[in-house]
Amino acid sequence: MARIALLPEGSVSHEAAVHLVGEQHQFDHYALISDVFLSTVQGKTDYSVIPIENTIEGSVNLHMDWIVHEVDIPFQAEWVYPSIQNIIGRRAEIEGDWSRVVKVMSHPVAMAQCMNFIRKYLPHAELEHTGSTAEAVHKVKQHPGSGWVAIGTALGARTHGLDVLAPEVTDHNNNYTRFVLIGKEPMKLERSGKPKTTILVMLPEDYPGALHQVLSAFAWRRINLSRIESRPTKRRLGNYYFYMDIEMGLNTVLLPSALAEIEAIGCQVRVLGSYPSYAFEQAVHK
């Protein structure tokens, strides 16, 4: 049994973790994503569950910056899970009358995914951001009679004994979040996923056309990049690294030779992990 750090009980991270690994492991819940990371860095837990990308909002930059700048723990798996958000509160308090809602609380990413519903039914309400959807639900639980509601998961509503006042209020039906499991050792999962590798590439400053040569190293070997994104190095203005997802494992001939070619032109390459990737329908536990 592994010990896994993640955001609070009832969050999307919690639902997603149960979906991938089941409920036989020990889940340690933290209010802040920094504490989730540090728990595994300090050896208190074996793994951390980190949301890193969303269909609607794109990259979760804070979490990506922690992965790149603050910790050095490899990816051991990635999976995709639907972010199904609901309006949560007390049915007896609101009684179907949205004008009774004074405040809507949620994680900023979750709230941004539900703005159509908010504009239509809750334009008068104060919007307050929280560290997670689960924290928002917990705050609503602690303040009965206040006219507060939360945007969160059905698991979060059940966990805190509240009602789903409006189900599935996200703006789009294709709202998925990509999670990574980070840890020092691979986790045994019941199914084999699609092999994938994630790297960071820092280009040499005095090499014109370096990015073109990097991409060419993959192209002529017919290695597919499923994602490439530039992010500031935080060293100086205009200095960037490139985050790349590669649809191939390191246990091949082609990928290591491509990385060697990139390094030969002066690029710095850091491998964030080579791991199994699970689409939603492929995840281990349904």
From TrEMBL:
- All residue ranges annotated as the ACT domain in the record: 199-276
Which reaction(s) does its UniProt entry say it catalyses?
prephenate + H(+) = 3-phenylpyruvate + CO2 + H2O
One GO term in the molecular function aspect is: prephenate dehydratase activity
Q: In which pathway does it act?
A: Amino-acid biosynthesis; L-phenylalanine biosynthesis; phenylpyruvate from prephenate: step 1/1
Enzyme Commission (EC) number: 4.2.1.51
Recorded hits in Pfam families, A to Z, give:
ACT (PF01842), PDT (PF00800)
Q: Which InterPro entries match?
A: ACT-like_dom_sf, ACT_dom, Chor_mutase/pphenate_deHydtase, Preph_deHydtase, Preph_deHydtase_CS
The UniProt keyword set, sorted, is:
Amino-acid biosynthesis, Aromatic amino acid biosynthesis, Lyase, Phenylalanine biosynthesis
Q: Which PROSITE patterns match?
A: ACT, PREPHENATE_DEHYDR_2, PREPHENATE_DEHYDR_3
Look up the record and give one Gene Ontology term from the biological process aspect. Answer: L-phenylalanine biosynthetic process
Domain named Prephenate dehydratase: which ranges?
Answer: 2-184
The terms describing its cellular component in GO are: cytoplasm
Residues carrying the site annotation Essential for prephenate dehydratase activity: 177
Kindly give the NCBIfam families that the UniProt entry links to this protein.
Answer: PRK11898.1
Instruction: Return the protein name.
Output: Prephenate dehydratase
Q: Which organism is it from?
A: Paenibacillus dendritiformis C454
The record's gene field reads: pheA
